[in-house]
Amino acid sequence: MDREGDRIARLEAQVARLLDAVAARDAEIAKLRARVAELEGKLGQNSTNSSKPPSSDPPGTRPPQPPSGRKRGAQPGHKPHRRVLLPPEQVTETTVVRPEVCGRCGGRCLKASDAQPRVHQVVELPEVRPDVHEIRMHAAECLDCAETTWASLPKGVPEHMFGPRLLALIGYFLSARTSRRQLREVLAEIFGVRVSLGALSEAEGRVSAAMAPSVEEAVSYARAQSVKHTDGTTWRREGVYAALWTIVTPLVAVYFITKDACRDTIASLLGTLRGTLISDRGSQLTFWAMKKRQICWAHLIRKFVAFSGREDEGAAIGDSLLLLAQAMLSAWHRVRDGTLSRARYQEMARNAQVAMETLLARGVELRLKGLSGACQDILDHKEALFTFAYKQGVEPTNNRAERALRAFVLWRKVSFGSQSQRGCLFAQRIMTVAQTLRLQGRSVFAFLIEACQAHLAGTSGPTLLPTTR
Q: What is the average pLDDT across 22-36?
């Protein structure tokens, strides 16, 4: 009997150990399954369902649009784009041609017609030769003390080899993401100016100093606006990751390169808490009052697309949120077009906000990883979801800032960032100048010429502030 009892005890202990092992393996399997689901979710991320840029999308991410059945090119009703003739004051040579024989019968008895002549213009570039101003400074020997004195440079002549137009040209090419080696070749091949890489670096510093007062004025202007967009991305300084941020208004865009994107750093960039800030849900922006913010709906839609792609209960919530967001944006386009009144849209926004908060709260209750936390975060920003519906000048998306960053991101991909603090200053200043002037429809090259001339003369330079029209 004792042997039978011992045997039962051993079997029970063995069963207990096996059950513990199965439970441990079940827990490990559940953990691994969750990890696989997380990795598969990351693998399936693209620009349509996350904050990843479109340039990172693999081929085939966006399905091709079905053929419309129309021919390529301009469609019926499309406004034609014809070559525009240059005005008479820009014409440097004119040739008058008259017919000598009839184009039909070959007769030579012709009389002048009252019809306006047909005009054809050929545009050619002149041979470019640099204008070299040589200053010869002589020496004189004093008859009293035998001291030799050399003449000084005349007033207004720089101590370096670069005139203001050449400096402006260098700044313009660098703003167009031309590398220094490429620029050196362009200067030599096209303009007949041979410079070293070191001299180009010095010229870059002088252009940067010429732009500094105008850029500082633009920064103060952007910070003071009642509505502004902001966004950030990464930059590199000496191979180390840094941060690149922008503040954008309809006619001014300013940039900052900083060592990090922490809350205190961004707070110092944005200045006083003035106006409405349009941005994503970045945690470093929580210092700005939520009632004075607008969360980007393009980011929200990408998040809702990610929800709808889930294989659990969260998919239905994602579908509903996505449908609601698309309907509100579609109606917003009608407000901008004038086919829907703002008062009617505000009524729609009140109902939509209640529906959105209800769906988000349901998502939080599901306690699903990757869904519930995001729903709670969006709920934490609920006061900043529909600001655009009630305040004039506020847009529902942060597209202005994202577009403004795109050119700088291309620069980063080509140059891998900057190698010094001086390089960072030049990059943020030249991009502030170039992007702001393009927003205003002004000439970047002309502005740089004026800025370099003023800097060499020690006078006040041009402004980047928009003029009242």
A: 83
- Structure letter (DSSP) for residue 88: G
Q: Please name the helix (run of DSSP H) or strand (run of DSSP E) that holds residue 242, with its range, or none.
A: strand 240-248
Q: What is the dihedral of CA 422, 459, 431, 290, to 10 degrees?
A: 100
251-291 pLDDT, tens digit each: 999 999 999 889 998 999 888 888 999 999 989 999 999 99
Q: Is the pLDDT of residue 35 over 90?
A: no
Contacts of 225 (CB under 8 A, 6+ apart): 249, 252, 275
Only one residue has tokens 């000084």, namely 152
| Mean pLDDT (whole number) for 139-168 | 90
Question: Which DSSP helix (H) or strand (E) runs through 180?
Answer: helix 180-191
Nearest to 375 by CA among 388, 362, 385: 362
Strand 293-295 and strand 276-279: pairing?
parallel
Instruction: Say which DSSP state 65 is in.
Output: P
Backbone angles phi, psi at 247, to 5 degrees: -120, 125
Rg (CA), the chain: 33
CA-CA distance, 368 to 374, in Å (whole number)?
10
Amino acid identity at 4: E
Least confident segment among 43-47, 237-241, 381-385, 436-440: 43-47
148 bridge partner residues: 141
Alpha helix positions (H), 225-281: 263-270
Q: Say yes or no to pLDDT of 22 above 90.
A: no
Structure tokens that stand for 280 in this block: 């994503």
What are the CA-CA distances from residue 387 to residues 141, 233, 362, 455 (Å)?
A: 78, 25, 23, 43
Give the number of C-alpha atoms closer than 13 A to the C-alpha of residue 61, restricted to the C-beta side.
16
The string of DSSP letters for 333-359 reads: HHHHHTSS-HHHHHHHHHHHHHHHHHH
Q: How confident is the model at residue 58 (pLDDT cuts 50, 70, 90)?
A: low
Cβ atoms of 61 and 47 closer than 8 Å: yes
**Could you tell me if 266 and 285 are in contact, meaning their C-beta atoms sit under 8 angstroms apart?**
yes
- Distance in angstroms (rounded) separating the CA atoms of residues 204 and 209: 9
Smallest CA-to-CA distance from 448 within 287, 212, 140 is with 212
Contacts of residue 221, Cβ cutoff 8 Å, sequence gap at least 6: 249, 252, 464, 465
Nearest CA to 250 out of 392, 366, 355, 71 is that of 392
pTM here is 0.80
Query: For 348-375, what is each residue's pLDDT tens digit?
Result: 999 999 999 999 999 999 999 889 999 9
